[in-house]
């Protein structure tokens, strides 16, 4: 689907979609439980992949009209799946489900789309093998398809922290239901660290203890997953909030209000401070969960995305509109996502007349709002590239056509509807 946007003047209210990270964890945690209800869940291509995996492990996930999920779990012990687990485009699903599969008494096979089959799984496969499971890549290249035979038996493992924090989340969630629990030692510094905080916060809400240690993380074994009152409610998603927030900073006439922005452990809440530091007029009322943002002249800043990889595409677009250089550092792990997002943003923004400079772990955007022009750009089949290029289209001179608009379904199915309700001119064509 091609989506064409023109220069727009925005105003009004946008509602944050539910968090993808919390929804994945809540669905799988409910799978590990006897049963649980997940309120305000995100229902998107990625979270449906996690729900399918829970069903293949012997659970069931039923969605009601108001978005509530009723999950019958597999109660700590996944069944051997009767089919291949297709994780589609979702890295979170593949990592979290691979560790769950290592608890089953038999063999699971996991695959995904072309993008997911090119992402790194090696460190997790090695960790699970060190713990006594048999976990391998069919192509012996550390990438899916994966074949995992459980059950695992060990209680201590070491793993690098600079490829994906999702390995740690996966091991913590599975470790809680093993007999002896798990000690996880980090071999290198942890990137994307707030995502492990999200995990520990959610585990606590499901009555499961896990903690940071001097060398990494630890989770006692023999625990049962059970949220208080049998229910868990998903908070709003700050990676998704970054788009209406940036749209307001770039293109609002009367200001944009975002609702559903309640504080949680998400590192991507940093976007509020980033937009503020760039010069936009922004106010976050944490008590009522609203953010008000208005356009103001933006200036380039230095920002590390070590903890917040998913913000890189949004920041790159903000940088394109800002005056001067925006230097995005500590970004190497952002190359291991649905696409290499450092290169993708550099190359696609350049098509719009924006100058950029890339190193292995940084992206500098040489911003100048007066030079951004409409162009046909490739969304790279990556939801965050599509959404960030759409934001650039709001500020460009002339029309911008983004190829692959349907990929927003991965994390923010209502994205283009949200932009047009704020007043953007959005046209779609197959
Ligand atoms: O655990 C999670 O929910 C996520 C962790 C991050 O990945 P990495 O830990 O691989 O950087 C992030 O990019 C992804 O969108 C969601
Ligand atoms: C990288 C992302 O997700 P995942 O790793 O789950 O594919 C994302 O949502 O930007």
From TrEMBL:
The active site is at residue 310. It catalyses: 3-phosphoshikimate + phosphoenolpyruvate = 5-O-(1-carboxyvinyl)-3-phosphoshikimate + phosphate. Phosphoenolpyruvate binds at residues 20, 91, 119, 166, 341, 384. Residues 7-418 form the Enolpyruvate transferase domain. It is found in: Cytoplasm. Its EC number is 2.5.1.19. GO terms for biological process: amino acid biosynthetic process; aromatic amino acid family biosynthetic process; chorismate biosynthetic process. GO terms for molecular function: 3-phosphoshikimate 1-carboxyvinyltransferase activity. The keyword Cytoplasm applies. PROSITE patterns: EPSP_SYNTHASE_2. Residues 1-20 are annotated as: Disordered. Catalyzes the transfer of the enolpyruvyl moiety of phosphoenolpyruvate (PEP) to the 5-hydroxyl of shikimate-3-phosphate (S3P) to produce enolpyruvyl shikimate-3-phosphate and inorganic phosphate. HAMAP family: EPSP_synth. Monomer. This is 3-phosphoshikimate 1-carboxyvinyltransferase. It comes from Halostagnicola larsenii XH-48. The gene is aroA.
